[in-house]
Amino acid sequence: MHRYVAHFFPLVSESSSxxxxxxxxSTATExxxxxxxxxxxxxxxxxxxxxxxQAHGGVRVRELxxxxxxxxxxxxxxxxxxxxxxLVKKVHGGAAAxxxxxxxxxxxxxxxxxxxxxxxxxxxxxxxxVSPGSAIALSAGTTTWRLAKQLVAVPDITVVTNSIPVAExxxxxxxxxxxxxxxxxxVRTPSDALVGPFAVSAIRSxxxxxxxxxxxxxxxxxxxxxxxxxxxxxxxxxxxxxRSIFVLADHTKWxxxxxxxxxALSDVDVLITNDALDPEARELIDAEIRELIVxxxxxxxxxxxxx
Length: 307
Fold this sequence. Notes:
Number of helices: 12
Number of domains: 2
Strand content: 15-25%
CATH topology of the largest domain: Rossmann fold
Structural class: alpha/beta
Number of strands: 16
CATH architecture of the largest domain: 3-Layer(aba) Sandwich
């Protein structure tokens, strides 16, 4: 029987997010060349790099090497110089947009192309906790969206979510696998989450076995946070309704603080993160959370920087 309860919105194609990193190289560098060697001048190259980071949320070293026709070491020096000026943030294999203010909320498309390897590894580990017959909740976020992709073959589960992309992933196979997908109503945010009093009220009336929560940031002082206070209300309702709480967060979320706190570190049962989280952070988290799971990420060239 087809069981689907939702206030559903028009579908947004996944392919637009997944393929954005495969676009042809930017033309931003055209004309930025030194007459002597045909390579972009450093200042012009820096400008183009910053523009690309701002447009896509991050860049890979190997992409920049190919685009500008310079060495790997030259690009790494460029990123180092830009990071020192506060224009980009260096990450493994490339650069990302600088840490945003507490109220800044990147769109779903921009975030979905960042750190894909890390998110896939985290999502894969989280999927192992889901069993047929359970009622789970997936909050909005690009890591929970990747978890949804790992759950498409799991039968006989009920999934509650306020994420349009998550529902889009799970809905097509819902009938065949006797899966119920419940998409809360509400107002749409830049991260494709549905928020508002109706959604909060609906979530609070539920009894959920497991919550898989995506977050904007985490710290000892402020706990798990989000830049959108309306999303914080939704996430808080999920936390109150769940018997077990799993947070899915890559290492870059550490010491990032959003406007609104969802819950304290100690409120969470399991945090799943990746192996780039530094030892000091692991020690601090271990003291607060019941279980810390660190997954290994095997990088292919420089994929982890932006993809």
